[in-house]
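hey so i finally got around to running the thing on that chain from the lab meeting. sorry it took forever, my laptop kept dying and i had to restart like 3 times. anyway pasting the input first so we r on the same page abt which one it is
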Amino acid sequence: MNTLVTVNIFKHFWKHFLNVLLLMLLVFQGSVTAKQGSMDWESPFFQDHKLVGKIWDTHKNKWLTSKQFDKELLYYDYILLGEAHTNADHHILQAKIINSLVSAGAKPTVVMEMLSQQTWQDQPQTWSKHDELKQLASMLNSGWPWDLYVPILKSITRHQLKLYAGNISSDELHRWSNDQGDDKKTTLLHEYFYTEDNFTVLKKNIIDSHCGHANQGFVNFMSRAQMQRDRIMATSLQGKDLPVVFIAGSGHVRNDYAVPMQLRRNFKQTSYLSVAFVSVQEGENDPQAYLQNDSALYDILYFTPSHTNEDPCKKFRKQLKNMHHRQTP
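ok and heres what got predicted. didnt touch it at all, straight out
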């Protein structure tokens, strides 16, 4: 065979071999990357849901990678992380966000809704052992699933971050409510920087969250309680070393009312990011459907499996029925 032909055949074969090798390397790298980016979810329901693990930017209407999301966090003074309290994955992801900020060179301050200022006022700002922190938090602020908050507490103690209480105690809230009397709605809206629309949405959400089983007196008290809690929590974020990471229920980090609104209107703060960790719903694959017809409800949606597959209203009605039976002689 002609030497020149042999060389050309060899070059062609070698080029083909290199292309195949490159393709195999890309496939392998992609599988490794996917494996590294995956997470062992704790919540048992809908782990294979299409949205699980995805991050949706509600303003840009686009998906973010984990790296893009981590980079986005660095631009804000206040990072508001809204959770479902009993979803373990939400707390794991909150801890990962704190760790990511530290890895990027930040020293975030952590403020938690779960800690009331009245019970926590004499506690140190930094802790070295997460188990001691958890034990005291459980004792002074019972009623919260502190076992699920361990990932966050570990991040706080590992990085020696400052921790502050963000909430008002229930006892103090009731004393405040009794002292206020029945304020006129116009006075109430003005004091808390609400509009009529804000207030209407707030009351509707309270009624919906109690599955329609809430009388007017209860709705009025819960509305005022929410407004007071949000103002107290927004106040607790002020004067802290930046950035501040706020750990709270998702209802307290919604943009239309709650803490973000207090930051904007009361404290003239605009450098905040509202992140809602969202438990997916079976058959609902559109991220917009989780925004309650308000595309700006949160800045970021971070989707996770669900910790329950039970209809909350069905469960609530069952609890009401049991209470009625206990009260009936």
